[in-house]
Amino acid sequence: MTQQEERIVGQREDEYLKRYGFKDDIKYAFKSDKGLSEDIVREISKQKNEPEWMLEKRLTAYKMFVSKPLPTWGIDLSGIDFNDIYYYIKPGGKKSDSWENVPEDIKKTFDKLGIPEAERKFFAGAEAQFDSEVVYSHVKAELEKDGVIFIDTDTAVKKYPELMKKYFGTLIPPTDNKFAALNTAVWSGGSFIFVPKGVKVAMPLQAYFRINADKAGQFERTLIIAEEGADVTYLEGCTAPIYIGSSLHAANVEIVAHKGAHVRYVTIQNWSKNVYNLVTQRAFAYENAYVEWIDANIGSQGNMKYPSVYLKGRGSKGEILSIAVAGNGQIQDTGGKVLHLAEDTSSKIISKSVSIGSGTTTFRGLVYVGDNSSGAKSAVRCDALLLDKESKTNTYPKMQIFRDDADITHEATVGKIGEDQVFYLMSRGLSEEEAITTVVLGFIQDLTKILPMEYSIELKRLIKLDMSKSVG
Fold first, then answer.
1. Residue environment code for 22-44, b if the CB has 16+ CB neighbours within 10 A, otherwise e
2. Measured between alpha carbons, how far apart are the two ends of the chain, in Å?
3. Helix or strand or coil: residue 371?
4. pLDDT at 12 over 60
5. What is the pLDDT of residue 120?
6. Among 4, 23, 99, 445, fewest CB within 10 Å belongs to which?
7. Are residues 204 and 123 in contact, defined by beta-carbon separation less than 8 angstroms?
8. b vs e for 364-392, b when ≥16 Cβ sit within 10 Å of the residue's Cβ?
């Protein structure tokens, strides 16, 4: 590499680190010992001053976690050292509903990420989580008057125990998988949203999750309940600085969409390349309800995430739109699951993936049509783009159909970036990097245009930064 090339690469890396990979020195109020044990679980619950019923859930889940083996499919998880992780790190200061009252060192981090500015411009409510705890939560007064609840899940345990007891862990029990059990044992933070019957939240609600400490785990728990005819959009962003040691993010997300409700859940993930991202996301859609997952995966060392929708009511609808970009050394194992469990249900799974260098993308999809699901319709489309000879992609669709009248389609394409496309764009004055980035953005355009404007802009910016680190 020439000195000029080294200087260009360094400038690209500096730009990326300046926006996302920085680390701030923070004074923590409490930091658990490394490793996981029953004593650590009890200490987390004690630090939070939780009721006995939640401690019992944690301890039951911990036993499940210990008894369950690591998954032998998907990404290689042998690099996770569960004894070398901090499972609970509490930042100093109290949670605030005023941005000015957030501790200065933490506020500085989110100011760099543009969170308060974005809230003022685009959101009906916002929440910011730093390591294990939510440090800021705010919802507009007019929504509170309508009965909308948007708070951190820890507060919901104490303030709305009946709702939490009714729904928490009913969609994702700790028996589901090893990392769902881990989350239930050590969960901290996350969002609790309740939208009353008929209330339509016109502007999105947003949460931003930040891992700042080295070798830290983040295990937020999100629960969204939309009553009959309610409508809400929730946006989630994630970042972490870059460390030599690996970090672990294992979240659980449960969504309940009652009759005629509409819930849209949007994630833009930009974890650094030392983070294992292992997330369980599940929604129940009842009669004529509509659930959308829009899932953009850019960062992380290894990612396993398959949002799912259980269509439990007649006329319910589910859509999963997934974008995955795997750069050098990254594995993006993503996709979606839809289970048709009632009459006249419909679903769509659309996946777009991009691989470059030693990056690998994998699509895993499941469509299940039960024997009582007459009139079920589902369409699955999986498109992969390879940017060079080294990159890889895999597709593992699975369909379990128990109805002869089901209307199911599946399409899959794998393409390589065309040299003629790049040459044409370069002949018009673009650099090779700019030309390849333009092709990639065109490839995912039909998904980015569905995103809210501010998130579409952010996703395109992230992809440009990721391409700039991988091309050349």
1. eeeebebeebbeeebeeebbebb
2. 10
3. coil
4. no
5. 45
6. 4
7. yes
8. bbbbbbbeebbbbbbbbebbbbbbeeebe
The answer to whether residue 104 scores a pLDDT higher than 60 is no
Q: Name residue 294's beta-bridge partners.
A: 266, 321
Q: What backbone phi and psi angles, to 5 degrees, belong to 273?
A: -80, 15
- DSSP state letters, 329-341: T-EEEEEEEEEE-
Q: What is the dihedral of CA 59, 62, 63, 68, to 10 degrees?
A: 160
Segment 31-51, tens digit of pLDDT = 778 899 999 999 999 999 999
Q: Judge contact between 250 and 219, C-beta under 8 A.
A: yes
Tokens encoding 25: 């020195």
Of all residues in the chain, what percent carry a pLDDT higher than 90? 49
Classify residue 82 by its DSSP letter. G
Q: Which helix (H) or strand (E) holds 208?
A: strand 205-210
Question: How far apart, in Å, are the Cα atoms of 400 and each of 108, 272, 280?
Answer: 50, 36, 21
**In angstroms, what CA-CA distances link 326 with 48, 242, 275, 470?**
37, 17, 14, 10
138 has a pLDDT exceeding 60: no
Nearest of 406, 392, 404, 321 to residue 361 by alpha carbon: 392
Separation of alpha carbons 52 and 470, rounded Å: 50
Q: Which helix (H) or strand (E) holds 350?
A: strand 346-355
Beta strand 302-305 with 317-326 is unpaired
Q: Please name the residues in contact with 456: beta carbons below 8 A apart, sequence gap of 6 or more.
A: 448, 449
171, burial (CB in 10 Å: exposed 0-12, middle 13-18, buried 19+): buried
Token readout for 432 is 């090779």
The vertex-315 CA angle with 221 and 410, nearest 5°, equals 80
How many other C-beta atoms are found inside a 10 Å radius of the C-beta of residue 401? 16
What element of type H or E holds 428? none
pLDDT tens sequence across 164-177: 999 999 999 999 99
Mean pLDDT, residues 104-112? 51
Residue 196 CB-density burial (10 A; 0-12 exposed, 13-18 middle, 19+ buried): middle
Query: Chain-centre distance of CA 133, in angstroms?
Result: 17
pLDDT band at 53 (very low <50, low <70, confident <90, very high): very high
Percent of all residues in the chain with a pLDDT value above 70, rounded to a whole number: 76
**Number of residues that make up the chain:** 472
